[in-house]
Amino acid sequence: MPSGSRPGGLVFNEDKTQIVHAETGFDFLGFNVRRYRSGKLLIKPSKAAVRRIRGRLGEEIRALRGAEPAAVLRALNPIVRGWAAYYRTVVSKEVFASLDAYLWQLTYRWALPRHPKKPRRWIMRRYFGRFNPARQDNWVFGDRDSGAYLVRFAWTKIIRHQLVKGGASPDDPALADYWADRRRKGAPLPLDRATMRLLKTQAGRCHRGGQLLLHAVRSPQSPREWEQWFRTTRKAIKTQHIAY
C-alpha cells in the first residue's frame, strides 16, 4: 500500500496533513477544535474565521457610507444571519456577543457623518432603539421609516451537536436508517416560529410555483452558502409567497 494511503483508495495529502496534540488544537472548515485544561474538548469559531467576518463587516460598512439605513440592513442582515447559522452548533456565545459589540460600533460610526451638525444623543435616538419588539434592547440599529432593524448574532440560538453513536459509520448500509434519522433531527433552520408554521402548512412549497422553498437533502455548508440562502431562498418565504 502506498505511503499515506488508506483502505478504499483514500490518500492523505502529506503537504496538508498535520499531527497535533489535542491540547494544541487545530482549525478545520472555519472551526477550532481543542481540548482545554478542564478536560473538555470544545469546538469554537476559529480566530481566522472571526477576523474574516470582522473584516467583511468593516468593508461593507465603508462601502455603504452615504447610503440609506434600508440599504445597510439589506446588505448586513444576510451576512449576520448566515454566519450565525453556520456557527450555531458550536461554542459561539462569547464570539457572537463580541461581534455584536463590534457591529454596533461600526453602525454608530456610520451614522455620525450623516448628521455632522446634530448632537450625538439625537443620532442615537434616530438610529438606535427598541426596534425588535421581542427584545428588551434599546440599542438595536434600525430604520425609523420602515421599522426594519439589524439582527444580532446572539439572537441565533445555539444548538448543540448531537453525538454520533460509537462505531457508527455513514458507509455502513445497516445504519442507513440511523443516519437518515440524524439528518431529520439535525439543527433546525434559524427561522422564526411563524414562518416555520406557515412552511409546514404548505409542505415547504411555494403556493404559486410549487417549488420547494427549503433544501430537503442538504443544508448550506459554509457561512457564504448560508448567506446566499438567506438572500435567495428566504425571499420566497415572505408573506406574499405563503398561502394563508
TrEMBL record:
Per UniProt, residues of the Group II intron maturase-specific domain are 51-128
Q: Which domain of life is it from?
A: Bacteria
Q: Mind telling me which InterPro entries this protein's record contains?
A: DNA/RNA_pol_sf, GrpII_Intron_Splice-Mob/Def, Mat_intron_G2
Pfam assignment, any one: GIIM
Q: Which SUPFAM superfamilies match?
A: DNA/RNA polymerases (SSF56672)
Entry-linked PANTHER family:
GROUP II INTRON-ASSOCIATED OPEN READING FRAME, NUCLEAR INTRON MATURASE 1, MITOCHONDRIAL-RELATED
Q: What is this protein called?
A: Group II intron maturase-specific domain-containing protein
Q: Which species does the entry assign this protein to?
A: Streptomyces marokkonensis
Ranked from the top, the taxonomy reads: Bacteria, Bacillati, Actinomycetota, Actinomycetes, Kitasatosporales
